[in-house]
Every structure is written in C-alpha cells, then in structure tokens.
Design a protein that fits this description.
Blueprint (H helix, E strand, L loop, with lengths): L10 H10 L4 H11 L1 E9 L1 H13 L3 E3 L12 E8 H12 L7 H15 L2
Antiparallel strand pairs: 1-3, 2-3
Amino acid sequence: MKKEILDIQNLSQARKELSQIKAEEISVDIMAPKAVFRVVKLFDVHPAAANIIKQEMLAVGGEAAVARGCVNMSVESSDIIIMGTLKQYRRLLSKLKMQKGYFGLNEVVEELKSIMEEMSR
C-alpha cells in the first residue's frame, strides 16, 4: 500500500482527485466542497461580529478563534481565524447574509465571498 497526503487547493482539484479514484459521479459533486479546507484570518472585526461568526461557524461544523475579550465585549476589535471546508464556508456565508449587516458583517460577507470564489475555481 502506498500513501499520499493531498494538498487540495480548490474545487476543480478536489473533483479531479475524486474522479481519479473512480468515485461515483454524483458523489463527486457532494464530496468535493468537503475536500477544500481553508483557514482564513480576518483583521479588526467588531467583537459582536466575531462572536456571531464563531457561533455560526461552530453551528455548521467548523471552527473560529476570537480574542478572549469578545465574549464580554471588553475589546474594541478582534482578529479572527476561521477554519473550515468550502461547504462550511458556504453555509456560514448564507447565515451571515441573514444578519442584515450588523456590526460590520456586510464587509465580512464580501471578504468571504471573494475567498470562496478563489476556492471554487
């Protein structure tokens, strides 16, 4: 048995790898977004927005790290590290769009859209 650690950078590469092992065609479309994992760092996010992002990312099975002071709003802003698959980012983006842009979330949505476009190629 041989092994290889794959570094899948985007959706088309994920589809290619899944197709090469002769996965069922319909399964490729289901699994490919789960194969693209990204860690994104956003800077100077409002602490309430950081809390919302963390909560929503956890709800979709991903993860987000925020400054300790976000929980009690004792910081003015926080950098945030978001960790997840393309599928999880899609679900997060959908949830954030419903927040009506509170606490600067519109800017976060635009940044995440841009990142997702890159991952979706």
